Amino acid sequence: MRHVLCAAGLLACPAVAVAQQSVPAALSLADAIAIAREQNPAYRQALNNRGPAAWGTRSAYSSLLLPSVTVSGGVTYSGPGQQRFLTADFSQTVATLSSSYNVGLSYELSGAVLSQPGLKRAQENAAEADISGAATSLVTAVTQQYLTVLQARRNADVARRQLDRNEEFLKLAQARYAVGRATVIDVRQAQVARGQAEVALLRAQTQVSVEKLRLFEQLGVTAPVDVETVQLTDTFAVLTPTWSLNELLTMAEAQNPSLRALRAREGAAGWGVKAAASSYGPTLSLSAIWSGFTQKYTELDPIIRGQQGAYGQQYRAPVSRRTTAASTCGGAPTSRRCAARTRSTPSRSPSSRSRRGSRFRCRSSATSRARPSSPRRGRSTAISRSRCGRAAWRCTRR
Questions:
Q1: pTM as predicted
Q2: 364 and 278 share one domain
């Protein structure tokens, strides 16, 4: 535990040393004002408003002169699976990678956009007026508190002199009482006066410490452990003012920072009213968009095999139907079907009659195929079968 306390003390000592070194031992009014400008939190807060106000003015001018640019993009991964939407099922056998980008340009011109530069400029001027007012108020507060510390120190000096005088009065009363020229009451009154002087001196010294702490508060720094180590070095002569009331009123009306800040705020409010009224006017908008989309399959082999199977099945079906028709043309059922189609077809020309006759012969040759024949007849039968095959092909084609 002792080591922990020692370590904490070593860490805290540099911070205390920095806090003590931030305020010099001999503090002048100029040094106090400079420290307050750097460390006072209220003034730093007002000073911080300058940046946003300036950037607001730049943004208003850029919105008036430059278009707005929007850039977006994304990457999507879809794994294989099945998805159901209402009553339809969507299946995906291969994972996909998708990417998209979008670049947009837009420009808008309206009364509100035209009035924004003036409004932001007025707000920036108001922020500058607030900063000037805060600086003047800070200087006034620090100076007043500096004078208050000097006044408290002078009061302490007066209390110390009063104490010295009362001690002399006490000694005189005791000497007179010793020679019989005064009574005990005179001695007791001198003692009471000395005690009151001691109390007044103690209060005056305490008031000096309190006013110094208030001065450090105005400066925005941490007070040293012993405030008596910091001494104020500046002195001020007491002069009789030579101004008149009218001169003071004129100077205050022209240079008072709070009044100037309020006037700047009034101008900014007027521009706000103009911007609100201009929003009811027409608006001109121009926009341009350039976008793109890409999609990539992670595996191509399943897709290629599926397409090959689909095309193979598509071209295999006509070939199988043609082969079946050619194989069944030589039999009796196909010959009868061909003959029946020949009967149902009306004869319009001699060529159609000849075709019908050939089809009849095809049927007769097909039916006489079962009887035994000689080699010579077999040759004629083969020829009739070939003719029957051609006739059946024509029938199937029709």
A1: 0.58
A2: no
